[in-house]
Design goal:
The structure is a homotetramer. Chain A is of the alpha+beta class. Chain A is 53% helix and 13% strand. The interface between A and B is large, with 66 and 66 residues. Chains A, B, C, D: Pfam families: Acyl-CoA_dh_1 (PF00441), Acyl-CoA_dh_M (PF02770), Acyl-CoA_dh_N (PF02771).
C-alpha cells in the first residue's frame, strides 16, 4: 500500500526495515526459540549497529545524534520497529525513553539537555516517567495526584508513591509529576521534577508483575513501583516551567499516544504476516485448517481496519506537526488500540495452539497489546473527549426539526396542564 | 475536522453546503412533514437553482456544463449532497446518472457524447445501467450473466432479463451489459449496448418493491425489472470497445463505489447531527434520556469510525485519480458501508420512536443504507478481493519460523513412519 | 432441538405449526407475490379456521374460548406464529390484543370482561393500548406522562395526546394511561381508563408512517396518533384499581415483553430457514455464492445465539408463571431483541438483492425487528435495570481485595499529606 | 438468579461455595499478594480439607470416594470452583484429571479402575491425556494423528510426539492416543494406550511456555511436550475397546467441553464480582471512574450473556445425561468461550492498571481464558459442526419460494439460450 509519505520518511523507513529484517527479527526469533534474554552488552552492540546505520533515536535533532524527523516523517520508521518485540529498543524509539527525550528537548534547560538529554540520545543513560499513582487506578484522573514536592530553600522535597514507571528498574533518573502548589487545582499547581535514581530516599519497591510477554531484554525493567521518601533535589531540577507540569505532560502524551499507534500498527502488521504465512503453508499440507475461508475473510477485515488506522494516524501526525491535534490524536489512539487488540485476537485464532505458545511472538503481542487500551488514557476517557467535542457544534436547525414531532405540536397545549412540579 | 482537501475542492464544497442548507434540507423537511413528493417540475426548478450556482454535475468536464472535478476534488461536495435524501438528485450527482455520465465520457464516441452525454449533464435525459440479472442474486457473479446481444447485419439483437435497474422507470435509455461473444468467457465476450427506452421489445415489468425510504421524488423510479425481447439497435450503439464490457464496467464501478462512499459518509454525518441535536435538547427537558452517557460514548465511536472512513476514502480518491486503486477502493467500500450501517443503527437508537418514524429522514436512511453492503459487490466479495491481495505477498521467512515448532522439529522423523496414504 | 416443553405445550404448538405450514405461510407468500392485502373478510375466514382447529387466542382461559395456556406453555406456539408476518394476527396472538386481553383478564371487572374481553377473545372487537406520548420519545420515561383524566361527577374527563397506539386505527376501544391524581408522583397517581372509540372527542390524527413492512392486512392499522379532547367516560371504565395504572402496565408489559421475545424468535428462525434454503439451492447452480463458508459460519453463530435466547426465554417464562421475574424478563428482552436484529441483518446479507426486495418476507422482517430494540423499553433502559440489580449484591470481601493494591498500602501514609480540599 | 437446579445439586454447590469462600479464595489472595506458590504438601492439605467436607471429586461415583453427581447436578459445583485460579484443583475437579477419571470409569477394566482410577479419585496419582501433536496445530484435525502403537507380541510399541499434555510434567501415567491399525482411517484405527511415566522411552522434552497466568501451584505442570520413543507397555494397557480411541475421546471431550463451560462461567462471574466491587468503591472516593455509566451498561450486557450461557449449559447438561447432545454441547462451548473472553476483556477495562497487574486474579483469567476458544476444538470447528446440522433440515418449501423470484420466472426461457459450457 502506498501512503504518500515524504521521500525522506520513506528513505529512513527503508533502512529501518532492512535493519529489522537483517538483524532484529532474526535475533528475536533466536531468543524465543531458546528462551534466552539479550544482555545489556548485547543490547549495546545492537545500538552500535543502529548508530552505524544512522538509525538511532530517529526522532531526535541531528545535533544530538538523531535523524531530525518530525511526527509525519518518523511514522513509517516507527511502524517498522513495532514489528518486533525488541524493535523499538533496538534503535531507542521505545517508550518512555522516546517521550522523555521529546520532553527534555521541548522544555529542558541547556544544562539539562547536556547532562541528561544527550546521554539519553546516545544510549548512555536510561530514564523513567514517574506519573501514575496507585490511587489513580490506571492513571486516568490527574485530580487524584498525591505526590508532592515542597520547596525547602534551594531544594525540592519530594514525597510520594508511584507505580507503572516503565523501565524504572534500570532508570538513571526519573521525571516525577508532583504537586508543587497545594493551594492550586492540580492542573495548575503541578510540576515535573527530575530525580536522579541515586538520590537518598528513592526506594524501588518492586517490579509490578503483569499480563504479557516473556521479557527478551535483561535491561527492560518492567514497570516499577517506587516510593519517594523525603527526596531532596535542587530546584534547578524543575523540568519546564514550574506549575505547568500537566500542560507539559499533555504535550508529551499527545506525541506519545501517536508514536504508540505507529509502533502497535507495526506489531499488528507483523502478527498478520505470521498468520498469513501460517495459513498459507498449512494449506500446503492438505489441511483446510478448519474453515480457512472464514479466517481469510476476517484477515481481509483486519487488513482493512489496519489500513484505516494507518490513514488516520498519518492524518493526525500531519496535524500534530502544526497544532495540538487533540481530537485527531484521541481518535487515532482509541481506534488504533482497539483495532490492534482485535488483530492480535484474530492472529491467535489463526495460529491455534501456536498462538498462545511463547515460541512465536504472537502470544506476547496478545498480552502486551491489551494494556494499550488502558495506558495513556483508557478508551472511555478518549471517547469522552471526542464526545465533548462532537457535542460542541450541534446543528441548531436540526434540533428544531428533530423535536418538532414530539414537542412543537404539543408543548404549548400541554404545558398549561402539566402539573407544576413536573 | 480539517481534511487538507485542495482549495478548489473546498471552495466548491462550501457552495454545495450552502445550497444544501439554504434550499435542499428545508425542502426535504417540508416533504417529510407533509408526506408530499417533489414533482418533476419542482425538480427541474431545483436543477435551475443548482445551475445558477454553478453546482450542477460537478464531476463532469466544464465543456459539458460540469465543474471538472476529479475524484479527490469532488469528494467533499459529494459528502455534502449525501446529507439529504434528495441532495444528490438536486445537483445530478446521484447514481446511476453520475456513473453513466462518467462511462460515456470515458469511452463514448463523439456522437454518443453529443446525443446522450450532453443531455444527461444538462438534466434533459435520464439513463439506466442495466446489469444485474435475477439469476445473479445480488449481481455479484458476472459469470452468471445471461443477457445476449447477437449481431444481425448492422444491428444488435438484445435478449435478456434484468432487475434492480435504478432510475429505470424514468430512463430515456439504458446501458445494457450483454454477452456478445458466446464462445468467449463472459469476462472477455461481454459488451455494453446503449438501448433507447422507446425501442420495440423493451418491456418494463415492474418497479421492485424494496426496503427503504418513503420516495420523496416523483421522478425517482425505484429499481426496475426489465425484459429485453428481441430488441434491435444499431451496432453503433456499442459503448466502448466491443468485448470489453466488463473492463469498462469495472472502471465505472470503481469510481461509483467511491462516490457511494462519499455520499453515504455525508448521510451518516447528517444522522449524527440529528442524533446529537436530539440528545442535546432532550437533556434540556430534564430527562437524562436513559443512559445518555452510554449513547455519548457510542457517538464518540461513531464519529471516530466515520473519521477513519473519510481519511481512507480520501486516500483512495487520490490513488484512483492516478491508478486503478482496486484494493484501496474495495477497502473503502466495505469499511464505509459497514460504518454507515452501524451509525444509522445508532442514530435510530438515539432517537427512539422518532428514529423509526418517517417524520425525520433517519428511518429512510436506515432502510436505504442496508443495501450499501450489497450493491456494487456485497461485503464478502470485496473481502475476498482484499484477502487475495493480502495473501499474495506472504513473508516467506515468517513461514519457516511459524511452522518451525509444529513441523521442522518432527517432520523428518515422523515422515518415515507416517502411513503412506496420509 | 428438544426444549423439554410440557406435553400440552408441545401438543398445541404442533397444531399451530401445522396451521402455519398449511394455511398461513402459503397465504403470506401469495400476498407478497401479488402485492395484495388480506381484506377484513378474509381475515375473518382465517379466524374461523383457527377456531375450528382450537387455536384461537391460546393464552386465554378456556371459559372465554381460549386454550388456557400459561407463559411456559404458550411459548412454543407463540414461536410458531412469529414465523409469518400474519401469523400472530391469524390466531389473535398479536400485540396489543394479546396484552390487552391479558390485562382485562387480570384486573377487569366482570362487566368489563363480558362487554370487552369476551368479544376480544372471539375476534369481534379490536383494542388499542394508548400509552406512549410524543414528549416521551420512545415512551421510556413514565415520569413524562402528560395525559390527564379528571373526575367530574360520575365521569372521567380525559385530555391528552398519544402516538404509536398499535392497531389504533381499527380499534373499537382504547386502554388509556392517564394521570388521575396530579398531586401524586406519576407512578402513584396514574390509572388506566377504557375509552370507546366512538366517544366524542376522540380524534384519530393519523397513522404514523414508519420503517418496516409492506402491510399485508387491510385491518392492521399501523400505529395511530390520537388526541383525546375533553373525552367523557363513566368512572366505571377504570380498568383495575384507580391509581395503580403503572403497576398494572408493568404486569402487562412484563408478559408482553416475553411474548414479543417468543414471536420474534420465531421470526428469526424463519429468516434463517429462508436463508439456508437459498444458500443450499444456489450451491446447486454451481455458484459458490461468494464466500459461502463465511456465511455458513455466521449462520452457525446465529443458530447458537437464537438457541441461547430460546433457553433464556424459557427460563424467564417459568419464572414469570410464579413471580415478577423482572430481571429475567429484562435480560430476555434485551438479548432476544439484539439477537433477532443481528439475524435479520445476516439473512439480508445471505439473500443479496432478494434480501431487500419485498418478494420475500425478510425485507419486512428487517424493518420490523428494528423497533423491537426500542419499544417496551429501549435496550439502555433494560440494561440500567439489570445493572442496578447487579450492583446490589456487590461482594464486599472482593472490594477490600480489589482496592488493596491501590489503596490499603498507601492510603494511611498519604492521607495525612493529602491537601485538605482533595 | 434461581436456576431450578435439583436439590442435591444445590446442596453440594452450597458446600462447595462455602469451601471456596472460607478456604480457597483467601489462599489464592495470599498467593497473589506474596507471589508465593502452593507446595505439593500444602495442596495435599487442601485435599484433606475437601475430603473432610465430602467435596472431593464430586463427579465420581461414591464407591470411589466421589459424590456421584451427573452432569446436571455437578454443574453448580463446577461453576463455584471456577471462581478461583486454584478452585478446580482444590477438589480435583480440574482438567484433565476430571476427564481422565471419567474415561477410566466409563471404559476401563476392573484392574485399570483399581490400579489407576481409585488413586486418581483419592488424589494419590496424577494423569495426562496425550492427544495433541505438533503437526495438528491446535489439535483440531484428528486425521493428522501420527503417533503409532504397533503390537509386538504381548506389547504395544508406542512412537510419537505430543505436546500440550496438561499436567504432563507431574503425571504418573498418560492416556496416549495412537494409531493402532495403519490400514484403517484414523477414525477407525486409533486406540487409547495407558503409558506409565516411568516406562523406558518416555521423554519429557519441556513445558510449553504460554500466555497466561502466574502459576500458583508447584504441582501444576503446565503443558508438556513429550516424545514416546519405542515405549513398550502390555496390551492390557489398552483403555476401552481397541480401535475405538476416537469414539472414546469424543465421549470424553463432550463432557469435558461442558465442564470447561461450567468452570469458565464461574471464572467470569468472579471477574464480574471483582469489577463491580472495584467500580462501587471507587465511586466512594468521589471519582466517577471515567464514564462509569458506560461500564455499568456493559456489565449489564455481560451479566445477560453469562446468564444466557448458563441457561444454555444447563440445557446441554440435561441432554448430555441422556444422549450424545453433540450440537447442544458445541453451541454451549463456542458461546460460553466467547462470552467468557468478552467478560474478561471488560473486567480488565473496568479495573484499569489493576486489570493487567498480577495482584488480582483478573490478569491471569484474561490470559487463561483466551485458550478456551482454541482447545477442545477451536470456534471454527464447532461452528462447522453446528452449520452442518443446521443445513441438514433445510425447509424445501422455502427453497422453492426463495428462488422463485430469481429463477422460476426466468430459468425456462433463459436455459435454452445459455451457452452450453455455463
Amino acid at each position: 500500500m502506498e501512503y504518500h509519505d515524504s521521500e525522506k520518511a520513506q528513505e529512513v523507513a527503508g533502512r529501518v526495515e532492512a535493519f529489522m529484517d537483517e538483524v532484529v527479527l532474526p535475533l528475536e526469533r533466536e531468543m524465543l526459540a531458546t528462551g534466552d534474554t539479550i544482555s545489556n552488552d548485547e543490547l549495546a552492540e545492537l545500538w552500535e549497529m543502529a548508530k552505524e546505520r544512522d538509525l538511532f533515536a530517529p526522532q531526535m535533532p541531528e545535533e544530538y545524534g538523531g535523524q531530525g524527523l518530525d511526527f509525519a516523517d518518523m511514522l513509517p520508521s516507527f511502524e517498522q520497529v513495532g514489528r518486533s518485540l525488541i524493535g523499538a529498543h533496538s534503535i531507542r524509539a521505545n517508550a518512555p525513553q522516546e517521550g522523555n527525550m521529546h520532553t527534555l528537548e521541548m522544555v529542558g534547560t541547556e544544562e539539562q539537555k547536556e547532562e541528561y538529554l544527550r546521554p539519553l540520545v546516545q544510549g548512555e543513560m536510561t530514564s523513567g516517567f514517574s506519573m501514575t499513582e496507585p490511587m489513580q487506578g490506571g492513571g486516568s484522573d490527574p485530580k487524584m495526584l498525591q505526590t508532592t514536592a515542597i520547596k525547602d530553600g534551594d531544594e525540592w522535597v519530594v514525597n510520594g508513591h508511584k507505580w507503572w514507571t516503565s523501565d524504572g528498574w534500570d532508570a538513571d533518573f526519573f521525571l516525577v509529576m508532583a504537586r508543587t502548589d497545594l493551594d492550586e487545582h492540580p492542573y495548575a499547581g503541578t510540576s515535573i521534577i527530575l530525580v536522579p535514581r541515586e538520590t537518598e530516599g528513592v526506594e524501588l519497591v518492586r517490579n509490578v508483575g503483569h499480563l504479557g510477554a516473556p521479557e527478551l531484554l535483561e535491561a527492560s525493567g518492567g514497570h516499577a513501583e517506587i516510593k519517594y521518601n523525603d527526596v531532596r533535589v535542587p530546584v534547578e531540577n524543575t523540568v519546564g516551567e514550574e506549575g505547568k507540569g500537566f500542560q507539559i505532560a499533555q504535550m508529551r502524551l499527545g506525541g506519545g499516544r501517536l508514536t504508540h499507534c505507529m509502533r502497535y500498527s507495526g506489531m499488528a502488521e507483523r502478527a498478520l504476516e505470521i498468520s498469513k504465512a501460517y495459513l498459507s503453508e498449512r494449506e500446503g499440507f492438505g489441511s483446510d485448517l478448519a474453515e480457512k475461508q472464514t479466517l481469510r475473510q476476517r484477515i481481509a477485515d483486519a487488513e482493512t481496519k489496519l489500513h484505516m488506522a494507518r490513514c488516520g494516524v498519518r492524518h493526525a501526525a500531519r496535524e500534530l506537526d502544526r497544532s495540538e491535534a487533540r481530537i485527531e490524536v484521541a481518535m487515532s489512539k482509541v481506534y488504533t488500540a482497539n483495532v490492534c487488540n482485535e488483530i492480535m485476537d484474530l492472529a491467535v485464532q489463526c495460529l491455534g495452539a501456536n498462538g498462545v505458545a511463547n515460541d512465536l511472538p504472537v502470544a506476547a503481542f496478545y498480552g502486551d497489546v491489551r494494556a494499550f487500551r488502558l495506558f495513556d488514557g483508557p478508551d472511555e476517557v478518549h471517547r469522552r473527549t471526542i464526545a465533548r467535542h462532537a457535542f460542541e457544534d450541534v446543528a441548531t436547525e436540526e434540533i428544531e426539526h428533530a423535536l418538532r414531532f414530539d414537542e412543537d405540536r404539543i408543548v404549548d397545549e400541554l404545558k398549561r396542564e402539566a402539573p407544576a412540579d413536573d
